[in-house]
Structures are given as structure tokens and as C-alpha cells.
Amino acid sequence: MTDRDLNERLLRLNAALDGELDAMGSLALEREMRDDPAIAAEQRRLAALRDAVRRHAPREAAPQALADRIAALTASGAAVAPTQAATAPTATAVPFRRRVWLDRRALAMAASFAVFGFAVGAGLTSLRTPSGSGDVAQHLVSDFARAEIAGQPFDVASSDRHTVKPWLADRTTISGTIVDLAPEGFPLVGGRVAIVDRVPTPTLVYRHHEHVVAVTELPLDAKGARGTGGIETIDGYHVARWSDANLAYVAVSDMDENALGEFVEAFRRGGGRATEPTRP
Amino acid sequence: MLTSKRAPSKARAPGARRLSNPIAEQRFREIVPPLLDDAYSLAKWLSQNPTDAEDIVQDAALRALQALSTVSVDRPKPWFLAIVRNAAMTFMARNRRKAVAYAGDMADLDALDLRQGDDAAPNPEQELIALEDGERLRQAIASLHSPFLETLVMRDINGLSYREIAEATETPVGTVMSRLARARAMLAKTLRAEA
User: Fold this and answer.
1) pLDDT < 70 stretches in chain B
2) Scanning every residue of chain B, which has its alpha carbon at the shortest distance from the alpha carbon of A220?
3) What is the rounded distance in angstroms from the CA atom of residue B104 to the CA atom of residue B97?
4) Which one of A136, A205, A280, B117 counts the least CB within 10 Å of its CB?
5) Paired strand residues for A238
6) CB neighbours (10 Å) of residue A54?
7) SS3 for A242?
8) Pick the residue with more confidence: A31 or B119?
9) pLDDT at B73
10) Of A207, A109, A166, A52, whose CA–CA distance to B136 is shortest?
11) Which residue has better confidence, A69 or B15?
């Protein structure tokens, strides 16, 4: 038997294994295997190898963070930002179509968030209106819940407002003073960027015991930004909206109403006290 | 105390741009997410690095999104995996993680070492044990040169047919067949040699 015959036979054995032989080819090969045990043995070896490859090198699930970044590429109406900006796990708008898929992967999600959440230095939190209902508070609540689930409620972690402020200033178009509320029992823990109506807006994250409060600063003319001054409950989270001469504020928290009320009071007072030079 | 500094040019991240149109985005959402596991697995085998694999798949997804503005796709899987494979090639060439070997076409057929039937110790049990050593098997796969590696992964992990592999790798079907046969023969040989 020549090398070329051997070659041909091996190709046919592989093709048979891969279901690529037509009926006549299969028939011919079956006859050969019946007549020559060596060929049959070779076929069994190949099959064992193929099965072992499938067993020990299975298809792997893509990390959730990657899936989220891919989904974010086509989040409706959004500009596609380069990799850097789209890296944060909290940073992904999840289009409706993806949700079913996401649910299937809830477990993987928890794991990958844990891994990727801390690997990320900077990110944008995208909030998009699925169907034109422009309720900023609802979006910020979803944002808050997502950040909590991710275990990473901020993109820059610092209790130093002189660190958080320039970080936010570099990434947003709104420059607000960051209030030091540690003496009041609400230490600053970091900041992140939320996207509201496609505009990056600064969000400050404070802690109070085991709870978190996130304050998003918005232009006064932002849709739905101005509230009644009272505290609402959305999806089980408490939301306070207020404004001053320059900006509107939306605070979302898992604290109880009273604590949030105290926080808002402290923030408003502190804001008046802790005036800093603002950037032009 | 607070000022609003609205600067429209900063409203989007630097370098942000629109890459596609709504139709392309719609096609993208139908095609790409279901293939993400396949894409990631292929990229990971080709780059042999999970972080690189993510970069490769993201790059491939961007390319796919751009391409979908102008093309429609009949067979999404070989189409997207071809993009992933090319993105991996580009990535590897740029980052020089591993030499990208472009060996072989039909000549592979003649280069096949088919003496294995002769010199293989007829010890099927030992072979089977070797096959069940998953780590060794994975190392043996990883040591394949890229033309053989990509063919094997596309066939046994991604489940593409010979024709689809030929399409994805822009290679004649005959070459796909010989590469696959050779890849498997080399795997068997490596495992045997170590057994």
C-alpha cells in the first residue's frame, strides 16, 4: 500500500468520524473495516480521541463581562465608546433582547462580576430609556441596584474628595462640590459616572453603616430631575430629589426613609459650608 | 458653589463614534450573542490566554458590526468565526505572543506521517488512559501549530462542518481534511509518546 493510499484511507476515516462521508463512501469504508481489523481499530482510536477532545476541551462560556461589553456595542442610540470606557461591569446597558440570555447565566454573572469588578479602574454607567419613558429616578434606581449586585458601587474608590472630584471632572460635564459628610456619619467611599440622557453625570457614593447612598448631580433642566422634595420609594429603594441654584440632585439609597432624610439635610447644609473653587 | 460646565464636546467619551446603523445593529444582535461562547473558545485556544481572548472577541465583534452595515450573512457561524480567527491572527502578529505559523496546503497530505499504525505499540488501554488525562490532552492540543489547531478547534469544539471550516479559514476542503487528520494524528502521537 502506498503512502498516498494510506493518506486517502486516513482522510476517509476522519471524514466518516465527522459525518462527512456520503452513503456510498460509508458503505465502502464499512466493508474495508470488516475485511481489515486494523482499519476498524484505527477508527476506534480516532473516535476515542475525538470524544476525549470534546470531553476535556469543551466549548467554554464567554465571561459575562465580555458578553455585556458586546451587548453594549449596539445599545440603541448610543455612541460606541472605545474599549476603555466600556469596560466596567456596572457600565453596561443591557438591551431587552439580552435579558433572557442573561438570566440563563445568572450564576456565571455573579462569578464574573466578582472577578472583573475590581479589575476595572474607570467606567461609565449607562442608563438608557427603553421606550421613551424619561424617568431619571427609575433609571438611577436600576443603576443603583445593578451596582449593588455587582458589589462595586463606584468606579473610583476613595474617601478623599480631592481624589474623587478631579476623577469625575475629567469624565463629566458637570462640576459639583463634593461634600464631606464623614462627621455626620456618611463617609464618602467613591464616585462613578452615570449616563443620563446620554450625558455623563457625576454620582457620589456615600456609606452609612451597612448601607449605601448614591447622589447623582444633574443639570437643572434634566428631564425628571426636579422632585417635590419628599422621599419616594421605587422598587424598594428610597429616592430623594432636590435642587439648589445650580444643580438638581437625585439620591438613591437602601437606607430607611429617616436616615435618607438626615443624609439629604446634611448634604444640603454641608454643600453650603464646603464651598470649593469650581473649575470654569 | 456649584457650576454647570456644559461642554458638548465632552458629552461623549473621546474617540466615541457611531459604527453602524440600526439595521446592522439588529443583525448584529441576532447573530453575535448566540455565537459568543464559540467565539471566545476559539479565541482562547488560538491565543492561549483568556484576557487576550476577550480582546480578540471584542475586536471581532466591532469588525462584525461594521461589516454588517454592508453585507448580509447566510451562514453566521462560519462567518463570525472567520472574523474571530482573523482578529486573532492580527492580535497575535501585533503582540507576538506566539509565532503564527502558516504552513501547509495540499502538500500537507504528503507530509502526513502515517506510519503510526506500524510503530504504535498495540496497547489500547494505555492510550485510553492517556486520553483521559485532560490536562495532558489540552497541552497537546495547545502545542499544535495554528493551522492544525484552528482546524481541530473549529471541528471538535465549534462543531463546524468541513465546508464551513474551509469557508472560515479560506482554505480548500482537501486542505481542511488533511489538516484535521494531521492534527488528530499529532495529538495521538504526542499522547502516546508521553504515555
Assistant:
1) 1-20, 96-129, 194-195
2) B4
3) 21
4) A280
5) A233, A253
6) 13
7) strand
8) A31
9) 87
10) A52
11) A69
Contacting A residues, span 32-71, partner chain B, CB-CB under 8 Å: 38, 41-42, 44-46, 48-50, 52-63, 65-67, 69-71
**Helical axes B124-131 vs A37-56, angle rounded to 10°:** 20
Measured distance between the N- and C-terminal CA atoms of chain B, rounded to whole angstroms:
75
Distance of alpha carbon B132 from alpha carbon B137, whole angstroms: 8
Question: What's chain A's average pLDDT?
Answer: 74
Mean per-residue pLDDT, A157-175:
76
Question: Do the chains contact at B181 and A172, CB–CB below 8 Å?
Answer: no
Distance from CA of A236 to the nearest CA of B (A): 31
Other CB atoms within 10 Å distance of the CB of residue A110? 13
Return the closest-CA partner of residue B70 out of B21, B32, B17, B29: B21
Phi and psi, residue B83, nearest 5°: -65, -40
Write down the residue that cell numbers 502521537 correspond to: B189
Residue A207, beta-bridge partner list: A212
Q: Given an 8 Å threshold on Cβ–Cβ distance, is B41 in contact with A53?
A: no
Where do we find the cell 488528530? Answer: B184
Segment A13-18 shows an average pLDDT of 94
CA–CA min distance A117, chain B (Å): 15
Residue of A45, A87, A165, A246 to mutate, interface with B, max B Cβ within 10 Å: A45
Going by C-alpha positions, the residue among B53, B5, B156, B46 that lies closest to residue A279 is B5
A230-250 pLDDT per residue, tens: 788 888 888 988 888 778 889
Which ipTM score applies to this complex?
0.77
